[in-house]
Specification:
By secondary structure, this protein is α/β, with parallel strands linked by helices. The chain is built from 8 helices and 6 strands.
């Protein structure tokens, strides 16, 4: 088995993709349900301006991230990966949220992996720098950019990324499926 460099997005990949809806629904006084969440950009889902979304994040981002729920099996499988591979969290979260991210990781007993807070959804350069063998992602645009650069992407299935289908992208529906694909890559 070879040791892989695994880059892992956090929001919608480690966290439940819809766990933030309660925070957004309360703030914007809407009742968006997971089945309504058909676009990755929340400003479009909630029909608000980007400035309104930025203001929401400034006032609610910390608590929202601390309240995030971890997907089923992600905790245990991340620990398995941590023991066998090089694991990195590569997130679009702003650098200012890094302490919050680490606090959330600790409160959920996640492995103490290095966090790369990019403040941008563009992750190709970080993936290349980390010599990424496989990237776990939910954002459709990120997945296509990474795959277009020849990086293997495991795309966590969500309502907002169902239209993505291209070379180097494998759609996964659970962390058990992620584990299976990573084990296959490590043994190839």
């Amino acid at each position: 088995m070879k040791k892989l460099n695994i880059c892992v997005d956090i929001d919608g990949t480690v966290t439940d993709p819809y766990c933030y809806l309660g925070h957004f629904n309360t703030y914007f006084e809407k009742e968006v349900m997971p089945e309504d969440f058909m676009h990755y950009r929340l400003d479009l889902v909630y029909n608000v301006s980007r400035d309104e979304m930025v203001e929401f994040y400034k006032t609610n981002g910390r608590q929202m991230h601390l309240d995030a729920t971890v997907q089923k099996d992600a905790h245990d499988i991340l620990w398995e990966f941590y023991k066998k591979h090089n694991v990195y969290f590569v997130t679009a979260r702003y650098k200012e949220m890094e302490d919050t991210t680490i606090e959330w990781m600790e409160s959920n007993s996640l492995p103490p992996v290095k966090v790369y807070s990019l403040g941008s959804h563009y992750k190709v350069d970080a993936a290349k720098e980390l010599e990424c063998d496989v990237f776990l992602e939910d954002n459709p645009q990120n997945a296509m950019q990474l795959a277009g650069e020849g990086i293997n992407v495991l795309l966590v299935d969500t309502n907002y990324n169902r239209g993505v289908d291209m070379e180097n992208i494998i759609r996964v529906h659970s962390w058990e499926e992620i584990k299976s694909v990573v084990n296959t890559l490590a043994n190839s």
